[in-house]
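FIELD: query
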Amino acid sequence: MAPEPEVVWMPGGVRTEIHLTGADTDGAFCLLIDEPPTGWSLPAHIHTDATETIHVLAGEFEMTVGGTTRRLRAGDSIHVPAGVVHAGGNVSDAPGRRLIVFAPAGMEEFFREVGTASPEAEVDLRTALDSALRHGWRFVG
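FIELD: result
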């Protein structure tokens, strides 16, 4: 039986479950499930050293990857190669749910550093940005 996932709350009210870490996969990948609320979005950014694969479990998301925009619904997946500009958000009228894989592993440490134990806890946005930069995020535009 698998252990309970580690749960953290990210800025914007995103509940995030960390299911597999680099320790579990010999560094190959980490696996997360998140639940972005209605209206949540991330600005255009890249991950310098990690690919990101997103599989929508519930809700509807709009994603722009490398200049191409797609609507993703439950059952749809999208892959973002390392170094490719991407952005997206939950365009549903309800919270969404996504399975996310970063490869190689390591990105889970960003979520651990920035995430809080409660949705009411304050997140220092400067600290979050510093952590994102340390973990290979680059914001564009």
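FIELD: remark
The mean pLDDT is 96.
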